[in-house]
Amino acid sequence: MTARTANDQRFREFKMPDVGEGLTEAEILKWYVAAGDTVTDGQVVCEVETAKAAVELPIPFDGVVHELRFPEGTTVDVGQVIISVDTDPGAGPAAPAESAQTAAPEEEEPQGRQAVLVGYGAAPSSTKRRARKQPAQQAAAPVSAAIQAELNGSAVAAPAAAPAEKAAPAAPAPAASVGARPLAKPPVRKLAKDLGVDLASVIPSGADGIVTREDVHAAASAATAPVAEEPVAVAGAPAAGADLAARETRIPVKGVRKATAQAMVASAFTAPHVTEFVTVDVTRTMKLVQKLKDDPGMAGLRVNPLLLVMKAFLVAIKRNPDVNASWDEENQEIVRKGYVNLGIAAATPRGLIVPNIKDAGAKTLPELSTALSELVATAREGKTSPADMSGGTVTITNVGVFGVDTGTPILNPGESAILAFGAVKLQPWVHKGKVKPRHVTTLALSFDHRLVDGELGSKVLADTAAVLEDPQRLITWQ
Question: Quick check: is 449 catalytic?
């Protein structure tokens, strides 16, 4: 290890950081640099997706990129090295490092050598193997080179099999010894996961027992192949053995979608949900929206019904502050919040996320409009930071944009209430003793019954509806 020790001060390694709150892994979406590129302190080198959001990672030192450890599409554990940088490129060629990625001469190994993949280490073996004799040019390439080749869009040729190996019986050795983790590069592991293939059951064809892409595809095909039976001719029936799997699409649940699914299941079976509904005439609110669009004080700002629903909900919370709380399971306490971090559910290409506006209750209407516009734009770009999705206290979900009247929303974990804002429709309504066409919507409020009893939940929903029915209350109730 002398060569590696000599390079320790020269080569700096950047590990996958925890970019959220206790996240354990992230997927590398895109590399912005390649081996040989010059980087500076603070330069963004890659984009990763966590269970909460897509985040760009800056490098914390200067130098020249020496090696990218993982290709795009790989899920990497927090703490694993993802890139190494030569901080002194002017010192000349670096001495070769004797690391887990460089193979030692086979004739010097007392035990059989197994290829080592980045981040996985050597598979344990309970028996010794006799070193195979082969020409030096057929020695396995370092895994770092194989991964770099994948990043560059090229393939690394596997060593040619010896003649004796070609003549061997049809059943090769299993992927790994019993209890050992099968050897496969990260992209191959991802492919197996996407196809639902257990790597431990795959027979490897690569050098030193490495599972290849072809092995995974073969295993997937075998799993979906129809069982051979006597053909039975049925008039007008589909051909025997029609592959229905070819008409199915499998979508890996990961990142934001996976986190959302887990959070909703946890919330649904942890917090006792109660949902109440109210249908309200919002004609005056719709008129106010039009007036605000022409108001010089709102010039250049986005004004829509959701903005006034947000303001109405905040006024209702101010009148009923006990609703803005959380449940402390460990201490069996209700924690009432003196601030409102208002979440807005947003549908994005990465799935549903709920960023929140910090201290929304202290903001003016123009400030709320600006914050809402920034929140929506950032979410659509997939750039919402984990901090913007943490610490929410209550949420609004605008199902009306899809033409839906209402729903029974599920609480975000740790929050006390969520308001669903339905579609605003022109309907016949009794107004001042006469049936007239009015703009009507339905609101639904779900709340945690451990924190919020029926009376408190009803007051919050009724106050929200009252403000939307007569927006003048925005002034009189402040």
Answer: yes
